[in-house]
Amino acid sequence: MNLSPDGQQLLSFLQQGNKLTAMVAPSFPVDFKKNGLIGGLKKLGFDKVCDHSVAIAEVNKLYEELFEKEKGGIVIAANCPTSVNLIKTRFPDLVKYLPNIPAPIGVNGRLCKKLWPENLNIFIGPCIAKKNEAKSFPEVTLALTYKELKDIFAEKNINTDDFLNSDFAFDGPGQKGVEIFPASGGMKATLDIQHLGCRKIIVGDEIKNLIAMFSKLQTNQETGCLFYDILACPGGCIGGPGVVSAEVINARKQKLLDYTTEEGKKPLCSQVDTNGQS
User: Fold this and answer.
1) Residue 207, C-beta contacts closer than 8 angstroms, at least 6 positions apart
2) Least buried of 59, 140, 186, 265, by fewest C-beta within 10 Å?
3) Helix (H, G, I), strand (E, B) or coil at 231
């Protein structure tokens, strides 16, 4: 099997004896069962496997602090690297609305580096744009997609089904992460509303819809105290190009619901309309 350059790089790190930490994006249930994923990564040679949603919880807190400090105005979520790049390249007048808050991948990289300073941090998720974003954070060594990881498992004859009856837990801090749905409206569903103040939340996903939303904002057709909860892929991160599943978005979202139920957690599934509807 022809592995991607990043897949080959990962195997090289392992062959060199490096200790690795996997930072697993919360969309993983679309393509993997938790026990199978953690077991497969440990079998591959990862030292630690952490839940990326813990970092998302920290980022949510930073946004809540920002809303408390700045009672008015417009804020555009900067969690999605493709959305941020779209603003910078096509709507530079809107860059001023991007907050000075680090992306979740950077927050998680710093957290993992503090916990396991000798380890190299490898992000694993549905997003190709994370590959370039990772280069902005020295604490993150590499970003892989779920597709690349499945290819690596196949190359190493690792069958994640072998670990389904095991009982694995994510490594990392004891604090609870946000049971966030990596789908459109995820921030609206998980932010503490008492911090939002006057803000109207506008939810959007998919590039064509974001372009329409940003055009309205740039031409002052949308004004007021606003927060844009945006993701560039159809349906949010569960529609990312690094996902293996060919199921429709609603089926992928159901897998996330099933996962939270299996884990005994209350699912926070956003019921908001998207693409300009608050």
Assistant:
1) 82, 86, 232
2) 265
3) strand
Single-letter amino acid, residue 98: L
Q: What is the pLDDT of residues 224-259, one digit of tens each?
A: 889 999 999 999 999 999 999 999 998 998 898 888
CA distance 191 to 259: 21
What does the DSSP assignment read for 51-97? Answer: ETHHHHHHHHHHHHHHHHH--SSEEE----HHHHHHHHHH-GGGGGG
* Cβ within 8 Å of residue 26, ≥6 positions away: 51, 52, 53, 56, 177, 180, 181, 182
Q: How far apart are CA 243 and CA 155, in angstroms?
A: 18
Contact indicator for 204, 77 with CB cutoff of 8 Å: no
The values of phi and psi at residue 214, to 5°, are -70, -30
pLDDT tens by residue, 172-219: 865 555 566 688 888 888 887 777 777 788 999 999 999 999 999 999
Would you call 170 helix, strand, or coil by DSSP? coil
How many angstroms separate the CA atoms of 5 and 7, rounded?
5
Terminus-to-terminus CA distance in the chain, angstroms?
46
**229: enclosing H helix or E strand:** strand 226-231
Give the whole-angstrom CA distance, residue 71 versus residue 143: 36
Closest C-alpha among 237, 267, 268, 245 to residue 26: 237
